Amino acid sequence: MSALAAASLLLASAAAALDHSGWDALLRQHVNTEHLVDYRKLKAHDLPKLDAYLKDLAQPWPKDLSGDAEKAALINAYNALTIRWILEHYPVVSIWKTKQPFREARHMLNGEPISLDAIETKLRKSGDVRIHAALVCAARSCPPLRREAYSAEQVGRQLDDNTRQWLSNTRLNSFDPQSRKAEVSMIFKWYRTDFPDLEQFFRDYAPWKQEPQKITHKTYHWGLNDSSGLGADYSTGLGFWFDAARNR
Asked: Which of 28, 43, 116, 231 qualifies as a cystine partner to 223, CB 3.0-4.6 A?
């Protein structure tokens, strides 16, 4: 193969990829070991870097992206756009304090306007229920925000790992071996049709040695996933219901 042909192949391969390295660096720097975000520091020092990454994602994507590459890109986009929306309003105690956070197509992705809900719907249509362990809507009861970007090469392993981390976090999902009662995230109730075999899902990913005989759901904490503690007092009281109703 000539040097020119090799260079052409290399350029074609690069063109068919999306670069998530900027997002990866931001996650490693601004998400702590408790999976909470330092929004203040990110807004003060690295907002241009986040905007540069999102500007790249806003452009039309390569036509020949693999399924794994698209899945990784959509997860990264959802999480990055959510954080960017919070930063536009920061300091704010909850995403529900903002106007139509999920339904309005205010974001640009792959050359088109899109909402966070629409990104989630695209991922749900893939049939991979593990995406529910990866999408983080800036709430304290969300699954863990991974401290690295999802990638085409590693997305399967990353989703397996994040799902196990989510189910092993007793604040988010817990199991009492004596009563054999599992108290799990409201995500399993809101998206119950996405989990046709929930028992098998728990067998595959949960740390519990026994199968639950009873399943209930934890109260979802919609306070901001901020490392400073901002939003820690905001949950599902009257303030939340007022904010949620205002955004319907």
From this structure: 231
90 occurs within a structural domain: yes
- The yes-or-no verdict on residue 21 having pLDDT over 50 is yes
Residue 101 has pLDDT above 50, yes or no: yes
Q: How many structural domains compose the chain?
A: 1
pLDDT tier, 242 (very low <50, low <70, confident <90, very high otherwise)? confident
Q: Is 150 exposed, middle or buried (0-12, 13-18, 19+ CB in 10 A)?
A: buried
Which residues span the domain enclosing 241? 19-246
Q: Where are the beta strands (DSSP E) in 107-225?
A: 107-109, 112-114, 174-176, 181-184, 214-217
Cβ distance 222 to 240 under 8 Å? yes
* Of 141, 9, 27, 125, nearest in space to 67 by CA: 125
Q: Read off the pLDDT of each residue in 127-136 and give the average, rounded to a whole number.
A: 98
